[in-house]
Design brief:
Helix content is about 75%, strand content about 0%. It has 20 helices and two strands. Strands 1-2 form a two-stranded antiparallel ribbon. Helix 6 (about 125-155) runs parallel beside helix 17.
């Protein structure tokens, strides 16, 4: 039990540090702009690591390595799609979106940007996009809380519900107190911790297995199709990949330009110089993290043998990183406190996403719905109070969704990612690059993208199966195309944007934004 005490100390130290950061920034948070965007004062390193840490979540250290562990390196196509999406997002979206949100009446949130960009006087876009954010972030936040619950359950042997409660309470506390800057600073620390863990553990494990022994151990562990198939990018579960399966995994990359919790980091960066710095830091972080997350699955299969996760009596394949750390530092290296710090890397991945999702959802409810629609004359302090109450309510609802211990982290993330990517992604791209995009087209794009994902993923329309399960096509791929086509078709079929809207577009293209 001695090693459990050291791991507990590491966890306690880490969580107390996050809460202290929240308390420090609570004193510096005076109004809603501070709470949601940190006064647009985000530095380059913090912006980059905060954006990527809030993006990857527990999926990076649990869902992706687990998929590779179970089915082979063919599952890496998701990582390839995400890396491509990350690069394109930072290069083509970040700078223009930051400038446009400033030009569009200093928009603090993505729904506010849509409203101001398309001069929506009736606030239809504001309300629709806020509802979409609440719906899909409930699912997304639930996935992060579920990952935290499984982590505490496995490491400390706690009942899942107790473990879930502990993780949710810590995330809620520092997000509730400190707002955007607390979230970004903690995400910066969490991003560093995630990177150190994901780079170190597979390298140590590979040395212990012996690179020359890797294929032999993989074969012995019973990987489907043998080690050659397991390490073949064109195979999954011992079978050749179909073009549909590869396309569906690459399609994850479409989601980036529609993720509110990532896009808000672009909006908050201090200046263009800091943004350029952020771009390269984020791309390097993402490349290394995704590469080593996939390596975790392969190396972990050999390192943990004769235990084979996912079989009867063994834990889930999604726990491969946790199991590797536990075995490595409790037995092989005998340094349980260091192991506890590395396990905190998984907690960091979970917390860095959940806090951002809570904050963005709070902004959609308090700033976009309450302040802009229900009570336009509300003071900034009143909006700040409503924001904190919203964080509490959303956390409780996500907690209820996450109470099912059998919920799949990968499945929950997949559905939420598709919802945001299809509803917002095409509109964000066209709003920045196509001046003919108008209000009716924007409304059609958000509604069609969100509904496509809901119908495809949730309604059993194909003999008791969802259309996604029956066809193997990821809903994001279809939803993105449907939304894109409808934005273009409806925009061309309705009245062109007015002169003022066109002038704003040209100002952003030419860089005339202060």
């Amino acid at each position: 039990m001695n090693h459990m005490i050291w791991i507990g100390i590491a966890f306690a130290f880490y969580m107390v540090m996050m809460i202290i950061i929240g308390a420090v920034y609570m004193k510096k948070t005076n109004n809603s702009e501070d709470y949601f965007l940190g006064g647009r004062g985000l530095g380059g390193w913090v912006a980059a690591l905060s954006a990527q840490a809030s993006d990857m979540s527990g999926w990076l250290l649990m869902g992706l390595p687990g998929a590779v562990y179970a089915l082979g390196t063919g599952q890496s196509w998701i990582a390839i799609g995400l890396l491509a999406g990350t690069i394109l997002n930072w290069i083509f979206i970040s700078g223009k979106l930051r400038r446009y949100t400033i030009r569009a009446n200093n928009s603090l949130t993505l729904p506010a940007y849509f409203e101001n960009r398309f001069h929506d006087k009736k606030r239809i876009l504001l309300m629709i996009s806020s509802v979409v954010i609440v719906i899909f972030f409930l699912v997304y936040t639930a996935s992060a809380l579920a990952a935290g619950g499984k982590l505490f359950q496995l490491v400390f042997g706690l009942d899942y519900r107790i473990a879930l409660t502990v993780g949710a309470a810590v995330i809620l506390l520092y997000t509730f107190m400190g707002g955007f800057m607390a979230v970004c600073v903690t995400d910066f620390i969490q991003g560093l911790l995630m990177l150190v863990g994901i780079l170190t553990v597979p390298v140590i494990a590979l040395i212990m297995v012996g690179p020359e022994n890797l294929n032999a151990v993989l074969d012995t562990s019973g990987v489907a199709g043998g080690s050659a198939s397991f390490r073949n990018l064109m195979h999954s579960g011992g079978k050749p990949y179909t073009a549909m399966e590869i396309f569906s995994q690459l399609a994850w990359g479409f989601g980036y330009c529609g993720m509110p919790h990532i896009l808000v980091r672009f909006m908050a960066v201090r200046d263009e110089k800091e943004l350029r710095k952020s771009r390269w830091v984020a791309i390097i972080w993402c490349t290394l993290s995704l590469l080593f997350a996939c390596a975790l699955g392969v190396i972990g299969r050999a390192y943990l043998y004769p235990v084979v996760l996912g079989t009867e009596g063994a834990g889930s394949a999604e726990n491969v990183f946790i199991e590797m750390i536990t075995k490595m530092f409790n037995s092989d290296l005998g340094m349980p406190f260091i192991g506890g710090i590395f396990l905190c890397g998984i907690l960091a991945a979970i917390m860095s996403t959940a806090d951002s999702q809570l904050l963005v959802t709070a902004s959609a409810v308090s700033e976009d719905l309450y302040h802009q629609v229900v009570s336009p004359k509300a003071s900034s302090k009143k909006v700040l109070s409503v924001s904190r109450i919203t964080v509490l309510v959303i956390a409780v609802l996500a907690y209820i969704i996450a109470l099912d211990p059998n919920s799949s982290i990968m499945g929950l993330v997949s559905n939420a990612w598709a919802g945001f990517g299809a509803a917002f992604g095409p509109l964000v791209v066209l709003s920045l690059y196509w001046k003919r995009t108008n209000l009716p087209g924007a409304i059609a794009g958000i509604v069609s993208g969100a509904l496509t994902v809901i119908v495809w993923d949730y309604l059993p329309l194909a003999g008791g199966q969802t259309l996604g399960a029956a066809t193997g096509l990821y809903s994001l791929a279809l939803g993105f195309v449907v939304s894109l086509v409808l934005i273009i078709a409806v925009s061309l079929g309705t009245k062109a944007p007015g002169e003022e809207m066109l002038k704003e577009f040209e100002d952003v293209q030419s860089g005339k934004v202060s």
